[in-house]
Amino acid sequence: MLKVGVLGAGHLGKIHLRLLNQSTKYVLVGFYDPNQDNANKVSEEFGYRSFSSIEELIKEVDVVDIVTPTLSHFDCAKLAIKAGKHVFLEKPITNTVAEAEELIALTKTHGVKGQVGHVERFNPAFQAVSTMIENPMFIETHRLAEFNPRGTDVPVVLDLMIHDLDAILSVVKSPVKKVNASGVAILSESPDIANARIEFENGCVANVTASRISMKNMRKSRFFQRDAYISVDYLEKVCEVVKMKEAPEIPGDFDLIFQNAEGVKKQIYYNNPSVLPNNAILEELETFADAINNNSTPVVTLEDGTAALRLAYQIIDAFQK
C-alpha cells in the first residue's frame, strides 16, 4: 500500500485524514499543520501522528495530500514533487495559472503523478450520466450555498463555481471562444454572486451561476443535446435523462408523442440510470492510488485542474469588462 501524508488539518483536512486512515489502498503516516494548537488537538483526539515540518513528512511518504489554503498549494506541491512524491491537490489547483503550469512541468521532470480534488466528478449522480452526455449544445448550472465565512477570501468563482467549470470542461470537447460575466460583492470583499455565459468554438453555450449568500443550498446542472435532456442534482445525488427518438408507426397507449409544426413525430421516453451511492472524497483519493499503482492517467489530471482555473480567471477578468 502507498504511504500517504496530509498537509493541512482544517475542516476538509480532517475528513481526508479519516478517510485515508480507513482506506485499503493507503497507509496513513501522519499530517502536518502549521497551527501547533490545532495539530496537537487533532493528534490527541484522533491519534494521528503530527509532524514538526513539511519536509519531515515528505521524507516518509509516497503520496502527499495537500489540503491547505490555496495560496500555499504551489509551494507545498513543489517541495513534494521535487522530492519525487506524487501529489493530490485540493481544488483550485493553485492560486495562479502560471503556478499550475509550473507544477505540470515539474511532475514530468520528476516522473510523478498529480490529481486535483474536483470532487463532483465522483458524485454518483454525475457518474451515472457522464457517459450519456455527448456533444451538449446548451448547459445551465446553479450552485447556491448559504453563507459560510470559510472560503470567502477568494471570489465565489474560485470557491464554488469552479466545480461546475471542471464538470463542463470534462464533457464539452471544444476550446472556449468567448466569456461574458458579472459578479457582485455583497458580504465579502470579492464577488459573492456570479453569472457567466461561456461560448465554445463548437457552438455550445454554458450559463453558469454561483452564489454563497443564498437562503438554501442548490447544486444542479442541466445538459441539453440533440437527442436528450440530462439533469444532475449533485446535492440530492439524483439524475434524470429524457430522450427522444422517432415515433413508432402505431404508438402504444402510454407512449408520449410530440408532433412539430412540420408534422414530424417524436417519442419522448425516460432512460434513468441507477445511482450507486459512494463516498466521493474517498473514491477520488483511491482512484489516484490506482493511477499510481497502474501507471495510468488520473481521473482529474493537473491539466484538468489548470483548465478549470484558467476558465475561472477568464470569468473573473470578464467582471471588469
From TrEMBL:
This is Predicted dehydrogenase. It comes from Myroides guanonis. Residues 156-216 form the GFO/IDH/MocA-like oxidoreductase domain. Pfam families: GFO_IDH_MocA, GFO_IDH_MocA_C3. Residues 2-118 form the Gfo/Idh/MocA-like oxidoreductase N-terminal domain. GO terms for molecular function: nucleotide binding. It comes from the Bacteria. InterPro entries: Gfo/Idh/MocA-like_OxRdtase_N, Gfo/Idh/MocA_Oxidoreductases, GFO_IDH_MocA-like_dom, NAD(P)-bd_dom_sf. SUPFAM superfamilies: Glyceraldehyde-3-phosphate dehydrogenase-like, C-terminal domain, NAD(P)-binding Rossmann-fold domains.
